[in-house]
Amino acid sequence: xxxxxxxxxxxxxxxxxxxxxxxxxxxxxxxxxxxxxxxxxxxxxxxxxxxxxxxxxxxxxxxxxxxxxxxxxxxxxxxxxxxxxxxxxxxxxxxxxxxxxxxxxxxxxxxxxxxxxxxxxxxxxxxxxxxxxxxxxxxxxxxxxxxxxxxxxxxxxxxxxxxxxxxxxxxxxxxxxxxxxxxxxxxxxxxxxxxxxxxxxxxxxxxxxxxxxxxxxxxxxxxxxxxxxxxxxxxxxxxxxxxxxxxxxxxxxxxxxxxxxxxxxxxxxxxxxxxxxxxxxxxxxxxxxxxxxxxxxxxxxxxxxxx
Length: 307
Prior knowledge:
The chain is of the alpha+beta class. The protein is built from seven helices and seven strands.
């Protein structure tokens, strides 16, 4: 079975949360085909990618295609399509120049680098513009005329300007200190009045519930990508190692060990291991969501058929 070949199948639809133009751009770069031809792959029709590849290369390319945002599946060459309703399956042959670099037999998903947002950049620019200006040293002027009187007059004028500038800065600091002192005294007086009237409010008790991280688009997207890859890994494992299409014989530990999947690919976007359940010939992958608790109301799940 080591020499068995596999075909990749595109469903013709982008993954949830992806726009068609984004998928066309990244998929064209991956498959090295023109955007017009790539756009034809996303018309909602099942398409088989040729030639057939060895399992390791097929799994790697499937992961890269899913990472581009396109729905993709895998099946042994010569078998029937996974979509029972598909009567005619078109095919497309990859460019002969396409070379896949297989770093690991498992699947890799590139992490999204965190870039500074516009608000962060605006805050940094504002901080630079409002940074305190250090007091400048007294400026001295020199004259190229060689006359000592001109040099002394320029020096005295520069000294007066520097002294006036220092005086203005000192005056501003003094006013700020006075305002701060007045506000402090006012706060003390208000607090004392509340104490006297017996109406002081009790200190706020710290919340015992842990803050829940927001479900950012990056974490949701990463979770769905890994769920898609694991869903296809279940089918690959049943084809390669299992005794028929029976999801109950599959465990996440055996998939990770036999297919060499990196540990981080077995976790959702928030670092929680996926839960795997079965029902007949169907299986379900479940993410605990942002609160990292299953059945907490924000779970993300996907149900797939074993065939």
